[in-house]
Specification:
Number of strands: 8
Strand content: 15-25%
Order of helices and strands: EEEHEEEHHHHHHHEEH
CATH class of the largest domain: Alpha Beta
Number of domains: 3
CATH topology of the largest domain: Nucleoside Triphosphate Pyrophosphohydrolase
CATH superfamily of the largest domain: Nucleoside Triphosphate Pyrophosphohydrolase
Largest sheet: 6 strands, mixed
């Protein structure tokens, strides 16, 4: 009986927002696909998983991580082959989400929009055209090609949940997994060792890093609704419009301006500074800051975006 070795890897989805661009820090990996900062966990040298993560992320990216939380442990066979296809070592990846304010990237690193990897997730202007033109036809064929009626029904249900009416911005990972299983992303063909028979959606990432990033986006979109994590991405002072645009960038949705401001006021999330911005054009806008007292006042201060969407989205 052959034995399978197991190693532990640590991966970090480091997220920042500049203007209206939600970005993730990626590293060049020997000229291959984009990768999240990642490296092995050394139990002999590193006391905890997070201390290991912070150590080598600092070495790779020159970032001193602030807000960080563990996402999930990814251990599916074949999704992260350390020694190539057929390797006897299975890598168990522990994924993390880190939030920061975008700064200058280190050599061999780059900030890239997360919609570069998930273009079907950005609904701010309108429903992405690729859903109707490419995704739905391919997924309907995936349903039709099911080996039996039961599997076809399960696939049909997943299609309706992920890409049907009533878009749920938090189902990022479920949508990616469905596209993966249908052979619509490059990682499916790479992991299966088969030649790609058609176009791939979005930009592939190394190993299972796009899956980890999908998990990070879903976690962050969900957490916006019950924790004030968006302020980890904001400058110390900001206008309400800048705050709204940041939330919209993360959620991939447009929000009603007045409803958004009413919600921020109801939740007591910000306080005025008495100072104003000096824009190149237009009227000055009041500058606000995060009101930290809200963390002591309520157990779940956040932005209930699901009921506040702009009809235009």
């Amino acid at each position: 009986m052959s034995k399978e070795n197991v190693s532990i890897g640590l991966s970090a989805a480091i997220v920042a927002v500049e203007g209206e661009r939600p970005s993730v820090l990626v590293v060049a990996h020997q000229g291959k696909d984009d990768a999240l900062p990642f490296g092995p966990f050394d139990p002999a040298q590193q006391r905890t998983l997070e201390s290991g993560l912070r150590k080598w992320v600092g070495e790779q990216t020159r970032f001193d991580l602030g807000y960080t939380e563990q996402l999930y442990t990814f251990g599916d066979k074949g999704r992260h082959s350390a020694g190539g296809h057929g390797s006897s070592t299975r890598v168990v990846s522990v994924g993390y989400l880190a939030l920061t304010r975008q700064g200058k990237e280190a050599p061999e690193t780059e900030w890239r929009s997360w919609y570069h990897y998930f273009p079907w997730e950005d609904w701010r202007d309108s429903k992405p055209a690729m859903i109707e033109s490419a995704i739905l036809p391919a997924l309907k064929k995936f349903v039709k090609d099911a080996p039996n009626a039961e599997t076809a029904e399960l696939r049909r249900e997943r299609l309706n949940v992920c890409f049907g009416e009533g878009w749920d911005e938090e189902r990022v990972l479920e949508r990616y997994e469905l596209l993966y299983e249908a052979g619509l992303v490059e990682e499916f063909w790479r992991d299966s060792g088969k030649a790609n028979k058609g176009a791939s959606l979005g930009t592939a990432m190394l190993f299972d890093h796009r899956r980890i990033l999908a998990t990070a986006i879903a976690r962050l979109r969900g957490k916006l609704k019950y924790r004030p994590v968006v302020f980890e991405l904001m400058a110390p002072t900001f206008t309400l419009l800048e705050l709204q645009r940041t939330v919209e960038a993360l959620a991939g949705l447009r929000l009603h301006k007045q409803n958004f401001r009413r919600l921020v006021a109801e939740q007591g999330l910000v306080e005025g500074t008495g100072k104003f911005s000096a824009p190149a054009r237009g009227r000055p806008a009041e500058l606000f800051r995060f009101r930290r007292d809200v963390l002591r006042e309520r157990p779940a201060p956040g932005l209930r975006l699901g009921v506040r969407r702009s009809k235009a989205s």
